[in-house]
Amino acid sequence: MIKYYTKESLNEIADGDQDFLKILAQTFLDEISPDLRSMEEAIVNENRELAYQFAHKMKPNFEMFGIDVLKDITNIETWTKTSKNTASVLPSLENVIITLNHVFDELREDFQL
């Protein structure tokens, strides 16, 4: 089964502490889910500055959890600095949303949240 996140860097940060891993997972769910919705809303409303802020804010979490969406997040950040239409960034946004929804499900299952 494909995993949408990895525990490798998390285990390194938590030094194998399962309680701390659970806290990391819960914090990710609590913070990234609303940030993702806000970034989507900002993109749809063409609020490029706000979209950039959310994309940039979430990027370190994606790296920490080993989530393969950095290319898409970078595309979103780049789009915010251009005059390209919203349709040009929607495939990247869609991939981030789909991937993160899988990650949310996996985290809830793996950590019984």
Description:
By secondary structure, the chain is mainly α. The chain has a single domain, classed as Up-down Bundle (Four Helix Bundle (Hemerythrin (Met), subunit A)), CATH 1.20.120. The chain has helices at 8-14, 18-44, 48-64, 70-80, 90-110. The radius of gyration is 15 Å and the shape is elongated.
CATH architecture title? Up-down Bundle
The helicity comes to over 70%
What is the CATH domain class? Mainly Alpha
What's the average pLDDT? 96
Largest sheet: none
**Termini separation:** 20 Å
> What spatial form do the alpha-carbon principal axes imply?
elongated
The topology string of helices and strands comes to HHHHH
Using brief descriptors, characterize the structure shown.
Four Helix Bundle (Hemerythrin (Met), subunit A); mainly alpha; 0% strand; single chain
Summarize the structure.
73% of the residues lie in helices and 0% in strands. With 113 residues, it is mainly α.
How are the elements arranged and paired?
Layout lengths: L7 H7 L3 H27 L3 H17 L5 H11 L9 H21 L3
